[in-house]
Design goal:
Structural class: mainly alpha
Helix content: over 70%
Distance between the termini: 162 Å
Number of strands: 0
Radius of gyration: 65 Å
Number of domains: 1
Largest sheet: none
Length: 192
């Protein structure tokens, strides 16, 4: 009898096929899972990147605002400094002008005081000279008038001359004293 060949696979082959199919399904499932995990990780990376970029932009805006504020403060400080420097320069120029004006006016006052003192000294000298001339004339007139009286007259003119001599000395002494007083007044005015 003829035996028929059956195309039945052995159980081992079938189990192998089942295992192969199961391995393919597991591989496909793992691939899908890895893909979904990759997509999830990519999405979370995108979200994290967006957050980081947003925080970076916010930090840059804050830094930019701080830089602008600092620049404004620096410009304001520089403007104030330049104003203060200009004011100080104007004050120095004004003080120098006042000093020069004071020097000129003091020099003029001193010169006028010197001229005035010289005039007063000259006037005092002339007055003293006039007084001395008057005294000389008086002494000469008295000596001529008393010349006939020889014995008595010899004593009297000497006595009168002795009396007149202190007056001449006083007049001569007034002249330097007047110069000293005028010089002291001039020195006091220039000191003020």
């Amino acid at each position: 009898m003829a035996t028929r060949k059956t195309s039945k696979k052995s159980e081992l082959a079938q189990a192998g096929e089942h295992l192969g199919t199961a391995a393919k399904e597991v591989g496909t499932a793992v691939t899908h899972k890895i893909g979904s995990l990759g997509d999830a990780m990519s999405a979370s990376m995108k979200n994290a990147k967006k957050k980081v970029m947003g925080q970076r932009d916010q930090a840059q805006r804050k830094i930019g605002g701080l830089v602008k504020k600092a620049e404004k403060q620096l410009a304001s400080a520089q403007a104030q400094l330049s104003k203060a420097g200009a004011a100080a320069e104007r004050a120095v120029v004004s003080a120098e002008k006042k000093l020069e004006a004071t020097k000129r006016s003091t020099g003029k006052k001193l010169a006028s005081l010197q001229v005035s003192a010289e005039r007063k000294a000259g006037a005092l000298r002339k007055a003293v000279e006039k007084e001395a001339a008057v005294l000389k004339k008086a002494v000469a007139a008295k000596t001529k008038a008393s010349a006939p009286k020889k014995a008595v007259a010899a004593k009297k003119p000497a006595a009168k001359a002795a009396k007149a001599a202190p007056a001449v000395k006083k007049a001569a002494a007034r002249k330097p004293a007047a110069k000293k007083v005028v010089a002291k007044k001039a020195a006091a005015k220039t000191a003020k």
